[in-house]
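Re: that chain you flagged

S.,

Sorry for the slow reply, it's been a week of failed gels. I finally had a moment to sit down with the sequence you sent. For the record, here it is as I used it:
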Amino acid sequence: MRPIAYTSQGIGLRTEHLDALCAQPHREDVDFLELAPDNWMTPGGVRRSMLDDIATKYPLVAHGLSLSIGDTQPLNVDYLKNIRAFLDEYQIEIYSDHLSFSRDEQGYLYDLLPIPRFAENIAYLTDRIHQVQDILDRPLVLENISWYHRYAGEMPELEFWLTLLEKSQCQMLLDINNVWVNGQNHHYDPVSFIRTLPGKQIRYYHIAGHLKTSQGIIDTHGMPVEEDVLKLAQETFDCHGSRPLLLERDNNIPPLAELCQELNDIRGYVQQTGKKNERSSTKTHATHS
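Prediction finished late last night. Pasting the structure tokens below so you have them in one place:
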């Protein structure tokens, strides 16, 4: 395996950047790349050769799209075995997907839909999480999604997450932007949400941009990260410490150098809190010496 340090920063592997990543030596401002294995397991030829080249320069993280952990269909074991083979081939330690469902009895829906947050669903999800981990021989890392629909009588999002993390002992991909979006749309405090999470189970962070509309905030991954989300990221690093930080950009994708500059700016911004705390700690120690 090629481990990712807690202080690492990365971007998503996008088609628009393949040529540049292959042509350039390892960039000092990017520590790892995140890819969707669903898009890379079957292609061969030039595209697979480009991935092989990139994988010699950067550790990879896998962020799946089709696990559908919360649906009512049997787990797609063949899919999971293909994921396992892909992860092993590229020495990928971290595999994440979404706490959502994206299938019904007719097939894939091509959207990430929120799981009904009922207490009776926890045991069902826990069993499926353990099955996935057994097949992959890795911890399953689940991301908190942005959601726009409520089911009557369901548990609050934070309570559901806390219970699931405790019962399943899975890990969490904490999407900071999604916490902000959900907090604004559904009227809860995003700082309190993040501070209540068990830090030991947070494997890495996502951060992204969103779109403000007259009807609410939409998680688009199509623009620079807003300052409110950056401030929430500061709070997150202050509370839970450094984790690998991944800047998501799925549309309106800028040139590689521009995206990497935004990543560096974000990392510098969120680390200001830690530096202030270090200075404060040093000053307090000097006062009491």
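What I noticed first: The two ends are 45 Å apart (CA to CA).

Talk soon,
D.
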